[in-house]
Write a sequence for this structure.
């Protein structure tokens, strides 16, 4: 069963073909363009719908249910109900959202979950050590997908070159709470297809600078952050979302996600679900149907 799902779920060659087909289709019809989707009447849902409608129809439902591991841990940021780093709440909501094929893990996935998963989505601090780095590397080398959300991108006890080589970014040094403007930096990437030039979150948290960032990272979106408090970094556009291939595997990293509310933002969800689908392999648009499901 495990081997069947692995073969089915990790159809990398088929996935790559689909992805190329999607890009070709977009190029033909010129969907993306450089349009700015401002407008007084436009809200997040309308803009998200526009992005969803940009996806090539043939690619939207491609592939069977993904085998997703939702990796969480105990809440670590203030009391229950404050909506900050609420990993258990996120896990419960997304387990329901993903439905068939979902697996849950606390702290770290079980060995059999590494064997079965198309994609592991981590929303909690990850306690990296040599053994875990090796295990994750084998999983990625074999074609697995990994998604790091918010605290999962912040390496403890400190930034690490080894972690950067594994997931694209080795950690961060600074953080800021407040409004976040995500400027799309790779408008031609299928994950960003049909999105406006910027996605604004009313309130969340950014981390920067990437310490270090691997050479093969594709930065999808940035946020302009001011000079570090001790002058450690200049004012600059800092990477907030990225893609990183490793072996046959893929890693998608996403810095925002401090607040539970952010996971209900429709435009943020477009980026997130496409990032998860990209990491899993197959059509980037296969989870588009979840974007407007169950938001509150
Ligand atoms: Zn946070």
């Amino acid at each position: 069963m495990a081997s069947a799902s692995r073969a089915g779920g990790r159809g990398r060659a088929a996935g790559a073909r689909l992805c190329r087909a999607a890009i070709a289709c977009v190029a033909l019809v010129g969907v993306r363009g450089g349009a700015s989707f401002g407008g007084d009447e436009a809200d997040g849902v309308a803009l998200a719908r526009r992005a969803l409608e940009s996806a090539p129809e043939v690619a939207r439902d491609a592939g069977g249910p993904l085998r997703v591991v939702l990796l969480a841990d105990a809440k670590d940021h203030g009391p229950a109900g404050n909506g900050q780093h609420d990993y258990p709440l996120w896990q419960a909501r997304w387990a329901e959202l993903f439905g068939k094929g979902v697996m849950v893990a606390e702290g770290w996935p079980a060995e059999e979950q590494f064997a079965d998963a198309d994609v592991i989505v981590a929303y909690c601090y990850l306690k990296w050590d040599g053994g875990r780095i090796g295990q994750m590397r084998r999983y990625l080398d074999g074609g697995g997908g990994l998604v790091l959300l918010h605290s999962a991108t912040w390496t403890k006890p400190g930034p690490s070159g080894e972690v950067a080589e594994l997931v694209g970014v080795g950690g961060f040094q600074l953080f800021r709470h407040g409004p976040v403007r995500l400027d799309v930096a790779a408008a031609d990437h299928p994950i960003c297809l049909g999105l406006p030039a910027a996605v604004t979150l009313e309130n969340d948290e950014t981390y920067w600078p990437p310490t270090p960032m691997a050479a093969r990272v594709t930065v999808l979106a940035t946020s302009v952050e001011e000079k570090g408090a001790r002058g450690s970094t200049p004012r600059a556009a800092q990477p907030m979302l990225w893609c990183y291939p490793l072996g046959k595997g893929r890693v998608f990293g996403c810095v925002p996600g401090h607040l539970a509310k952010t996971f209900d933002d429709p435009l943020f969800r477009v980026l997130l679900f496409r990032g998860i689908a990209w990491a899993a392999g197959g059509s980037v648009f296969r989870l588009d149907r979840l974007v407007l499901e169950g938001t509150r």
